[in-house]
Amino acid sequence: MINKEQIQNLANTIFQDVVGYRRHLHMNPELSFEEFQTSAFIKEKLTEWGIPFSSMANTGVVGLITGDLPSEQVIALRGDIDALPIIEANEKPYTSQNPGVMHACGHDVHTSSLLGAAYILNQLKAEFGGTIKLIFQPGEEMLPGGASLMIKEGVLENPKPQHIIGQHVMPFIEVGKVGFRSGIYMASADELYVTVRGKGGHGAQPQHNIDPVLITSHIIVALQQIVSRNADPRLPSVLSFGKVIANGATNIIPNEVKLEGTFRTLNEEWRAEAKRLMKKMAEGIAESMGGSCEFNIMHGYPFLVNEEKLTASARAFAEDYLGAENVVDLDIWMAAEDFAYYSQVTDACFYRLGTGNKAKDTTYSVHHPNFDVDEDALKISTGLMAYMALKQLGN
């Protein structure tokens, strides 16, 4: 019977290598669906360890480790591999060498951790039964999301996993700890692209114009009513606009204004109704003020659900591996993740890996140009994932 000491010893053995994997990936980040060198690096390691793999969704890699003992149980482990279009502000030996691209969301940690877990599991395959599917997934940061593409291409088939587990860095949790939440955890996310058209002209002669800037201002304020007066107050909803382009001047009213934003919630029925109401309200306001509004919605990721039984068992395994004092409760998180697609298809558990350390200045939020992690987190990220997989398989 495999015990946690075996896994912890293997995790310690591979730790410096995993740090090296993480730093290599951090120095060579690639944008969503362009992760060709990252994919090649993953394949190189799996080949070195004799782990069979296949390609999927162009740059995705799916490895298989089958234990030598009899069992038909299958579990999937997922790590995303893409980076973000951010200019890194850190000055570290492993700072991004790809200008304008940065692993600012910790996907380098996820990928290197899954590689480390793969090494551990492969070393132990003579001692366990069942199959572990290793999903190195591209394109988490860009719609339609690499998860949706891999599911369409059959990543959850042949063999079909009964469970899938994923982890994500969290700088607001102290390194050495992990966090879990059962049930609905993360929000759906839709992108809003709005064009408001009017009639431009001289700013000193507004009577001759139809001001799209003014119309847009009314639309932005009025749409918040959808959240404050139409949504059930018990249901979290977020509507935010982060980009407004008018391209006029101090005395020039433009012909049109571009507006971009996001809508997030935790209920599919309300999600659909809110989008209908937003479109109707924006178009009505523009028309009433003499202009027009083109309101386009890019349907994004669904909300993420952690299956209760799987999450409870995963949490118990984490408490056994790390100690109960190092496992914390998570609150609802209104960010979105394409891991949600897996959770809509099979039993899923998505947990958080603490990477924060004030002394090492690793408490910047994800997607920040100064984001970094305390690499001591890699001491537990590999072994914990391997341990949870084996325990879930019944070993």
UniProtKB/TrEMBL annotation:
Its cofactor is Mn(2+). It comes from the Bacteria. GO terms for biological process: diaminopimelate biosynthetic process. One of its GO terms (molecular function) is N-acetyldiaminopimelate deacetylase activity. Its EC number is 3.5.1.-. PANTHER family: METALLOPEPTIDASE, PUTATIVE (AFU_ORTHOLOGUE AFUA_6G09600)-RELATED, PEPTIDASE M20 FAMILY MEMBER. This is Amidohydrolase. NCBIfam families: amidohydrolases (TIGR01891). InterPro entries: Amidohydrolase, Bact_exopeptidase_dim_dom, Peptidase_M20, Peptidase_M20_dimer. Keywords: Hydrolase, Manganese, Metal-binding.
